[in-house]
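ugh ok fine here u go
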Amino acid sequence: MSVPALSVQQPASEPPAAARLPLRELLPTGTWRMLVGAGMVAGVVASFTHFGFTGYAVVGAVFVPTLVLLTAIDVQHRLLPNVIVLPAAVLVGLILAASDPRTFLGHLAAAAAAGGFFFAFSAFFPGALGMGDTKLVFLLGLALGGRVLGAIFLAFVAVLVAALYIIAKRGAAARKETIPFGPFLALGGLVAFFLG
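structure:
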């Protein structure tokens, strides 16, 4: 999804051309690929360093690199591909269910509530949020449980700051410019995962 400088909006007519590209063409290339790869590896290492050899660290070993990769794709193509988000959500859910079945239902409920809210918002305000954002929020809820609210709040604060910065720098005409929302959701998710 793309967020204009002051309002949340996305063209609703048809999916972006990038949505029709195969995954290999959406992946970062060149130096960008090396940076994203390094970020993904660093995310796995950070997860095990922070949480030890636990089930939640294994969740992080899937969750964190996924957020890094989705950020890179959304910045470049304004797209959060299902072929990445959905398998990651399934894998995170399976790891949680196997490693800590007592908390799995709570995480699933948080994912359903947060994803459901974003889905309803998208349905009532067509073009306001993309379905990719909704699915990403479901993934955040699954990995974070109740901390997903803090992640979403941080994402909205960060996108507001970015929007105000763009307007201050480029003037009132910048209100029609858009910025991808996925990286802000990823930022909120990473902060909540490691510090929440």
